Amino acid sequence: MEPLDVAVYVANATLEAAGNNVKDEIDQIFVGNCIPGSYETGSVTGRQIGLKVGRDVFTTTIDTACCSPLTALRMALWGMRLGEIESALVIGTEAMSRAPHMSRQLRTGVRIGEVKMPDPIFPIMYPGYHSVAVDASDGAEKYNVPKRMLDTFAMGSHLKWAAAMKAGKFEDEIVPIPVIKGRQKFLFAADEMPRPSGSVAATEMLPTVFGAKTTTAGNAPGLNDGASAMVVMTEKKAKALGLTILGTIIDQVGRTDMPYGISWIPAMAINKLLERTKMTIDDISLIEINEAFSAMPLVSTKILAENDEKKWHELIAKTNVNGGAIAIGHPVGASGLRITMTMMYELRRRGGGNAVAAICGGLTQGEAIMVQV
Amino acid sequence: MPEVIYRLDPVKKIATFLIDTAGPVNTIGDQFIKDLAIATEKANRDNVKGVILASLKKKSFLDGANLMEIMKDGSALNLKYTVLKLQEVFAALARSPFPVVAVLPGQTALGGGFEMLLWTCDHVFATEGTKLGLPEVNIGLFPAAGGPEALRRVIGLEKAIEVVMRGQVLPAEAYEDSCLVTITNEKDIQKDAVQWIASHRIIINRNYDPLWKEPAKPTKKVRNALIKKVRERFALCPEKPYLKAAIDAIEEGLELPFEEAAKNEVIHFAPLIEHPNVKNKIDFFFLMTSIAPRLSIVNLEKAIPAPELAIIGAGLMGQGIAQVCADKGIKALLIDIDIKTAEAAKENIGKGLEPLVKKGRWTSERKTMVMDNIRVSDKYDELKTIPLVIEAVFEDLDLKRKILKQVQDINPDIVFASNTSTIPMQEIAAESARPEMVVGMHYFSPVPLMPLLEVIQGPQTSESALATAVASGRQQGKTCVIVGDGPGFYTSRTFGAYVMVGFYLAEMGIDPWEIDQLALEAGFPQGPLNIYGTAGGNVIYHAGSYMQAKKPELIEVPKTLVKMYEAGYVGAGKPCFYGPGMKPDKSALEHVVRNESLPTPTREEAKEMLLLAMANQAFHCLDEGVVKNYYSMDLASVIGIGFPDCWHGPGRYVSQKGVKHTLGRLQEFYDKYGLAFFKPAREFERLIACGVDSGLV
Questions:
Q1: Rounded to a whole number, what is the distance in Å from the CA of B676 to chain A's nearest CA?
Q2: Which of A367, B114, B503, B609 is disulfide-compatible with B558, CB 3.0–4.6 A?
Q3: CB-nearest partner of A155 from B295, B651, B695
Q4: Residue B439 and residue B459: Cα distance in Å, rounded?
Q5: Is the pLDDT of residue B360 over 80?
Q6: ipTM above 0.90, yes or no
Q7: How many CB atoms lie under 10 A from the CB of residue B229?
Q8: Which residues of A are catalytic?
Q9: Which domains does chain B have, with CATH numbers?
Q10: Which domain holds residue A337?
């Protein structure tokens, strides 16, 4: 199977989720993707997917690092608000296991000496800046989040995932994919990343990486493959088609800060969103903050709690309630939509309410979305 | 490559089974069992006149089951068939028509390895340094390859029970009086074995000999009384199923023929592997052996080599430290206020070692080396050239400060380690010009037996001083756990909680001797009130009062303890809860301050309160950064202060009970009894917020 097909499977499943296929009703496609080099031809990835899905409409592929799928969704929102489109298919996709080692030396010929083959995803960093692992660690230090808390939250991610898995909560949101491995064909239906049988004690023992003070493989997510998709349309159009509305996007924002601020940018984005919607964090019943590292949800909730420890704990308790990227993995261009969707399903189970999801992206951009169910 | 290599001497017609399994020590796994069966078959086919068992590993003859292999599957069913298969193979070798002899030149035969000797061998030749034992109960199991049965036939029931139930590993010399072991030297060992075979052509394996006379075989009545006593002593705690299973197997075996008794052992043995507390014990074994060395990370490059160190204070602790150092080849200079005291102390160390030499546990050379490595003095001048000094005077801040000043005046570059149990480094070093050289090395009494060393890193302690303390501690054979500064550090505080809550239970109306009994039932090695006497009421009173003064919100000294101390009820020769021979001294009762306003806890509540008081204090220490991580928490609490080993430590205990449940119980006890010890640590709320209810350790 080609890595692109993961996104195609997910897109098709989403289009068919309502019972009748809404493919023909899609006006435009927006695709978020962060490492196009993972695919056979790293260009117009979205258009390639769109054609495979069989919907020949204008397709935008966008890269705002981990923010990509939520930026793609925000573009769809613009289109609908402007009246240019009435509906869109939004996709986030990533195939990190296929990211190629690259060498620029070969094109011009190699003189005597070695050929270097750097890995674009190890460590994830931008020229002139720290590794994101260091930025996360520094953020935790700045906001006084101790390492044990980072490790505890990480273990919690695995345990919360295991509890949700056991309760069958992911059945609605995961589409199994047939996989051929050697001569065996099987249905890949459950995440293989989570390690709920681990412990905080063992996590604490892991060595720190890339010179960071507190970041380890234990409080960071996996580098994974995955895709997520969502169908959005105007309320009028959805009603006309007789579709069930799973959730309503109240608003979306994007925000930036100093390039090292990735651990707190989710909080800044959420605060901007709350300002725009004239709400407070107390009006929010569920939070998703992508676990790019444990530091992101912990630092960001601490900011949202305005340093009040009790409130902080309350906010943490309603953040990523079914586990997050540390357990499931973080296919960078797909996670943003996944957390938004998983949050909507959880809101439905809880009888509705307002919820926010936020994600940080490379060189400190942040996306936040508020959804009502 | 087979794990049991078969070699035949065609002239003498003697076969040798050379054991060499994968891994650094020889262990029993599926492959070993298969290969032993094949070798036995070959020996029978070749019609040999005898078999010699030997190992190709230098230090290890055969050291029990391959734990990794057992844990990987972890099912009782598979384990049962594996052990039965092993028994079958042992039986085949034992029943073969030729004598079987083992040679152990300074190697260890532990667990299943020793059981193989006991079952299959007609005789064992060993040299000095060889160790034999059945340590299975230390990992939550018991010997079930015929070990208890076969051992009884060699050393008698009473001694066999002692070895099995205490998991004893003894020098081979301890078995010299029995029919099984002959001590020889490395040069002759092979020759001795061959000769023995030549002179014992026809021999019936004692396990199969109906006429075999078991040494010191007791009458049925004596036997039953013995078993009953053993049950009371070892099988009190229901959380340690392996001890009960061992006794059950031994008792039932008394009525069965050898092989049936061995098979019956497996019935009791196999289900243990699925018990969570057995997993705790096995995990703890790995914590001790493979995690502990990686726990206390220091920059060893900055450690100052200390081939010689000084100890100030030649009391019981000072003597113990000197002995341990000297035993590991470190030159120890023992300093006291006058030379006579110091000399007497050295003499005392020598006296303490005599029984060990007499019993054959120590060679006389080892004792001589220890005594040679210890030097005594009453002059601080000698510290000029010594890199590390361990201060082991009594717990008096002014005295410790005075000594620190004297020492630093003479040698400002010396690493000054204080063997204090409660006083923070920051206090000791407060007036020092070089506070960075001060570090804590908290030993436990008796020093030669207790494996833990709590190394205390004060806020100013330098990397180099810390590394020096850890490096020297490791050289002394101690398991080092680094903790942060604070009154009572980790272990004294947590231990204090246990003892104090014991007293509070008495004030709430539980009979004091019943409290100690309940503690044993909960799995503690010693009851809290008994400890008050054995550790010394003075020490506990002073440590408790000190910690209360520093941390009144978490630590309180019960009125009863104060009254007992004031009345001179402090143990160690003085009256206490127990008189000579552990007889309850009822006169202690008049000092118990009964608090009628509090309800009397039930037996189960009392046990839980003892466990929770310790666990809660441990979590407070984690909160405050005194305890650095969960593994340290569990490790130090079990090997240092007797937290029940069946729980692996406070971290695993809370993990298994559930964080929410633990927090709820603590809050209940706090509301009901108002004791500071039950004020829940904040860490619990953090864990719950993060969705961690289990999975701590």
A1: 21
A2: B503
A3: B695
A4: 10
A5: no
A6: yes
A7: 12
A8: 66, 330, 360
A9: 4-274 (3.90.226.10), 300-484 (3.40.50.720), 491-689 (1.10.1040.50)
A10: 132-216+245-372
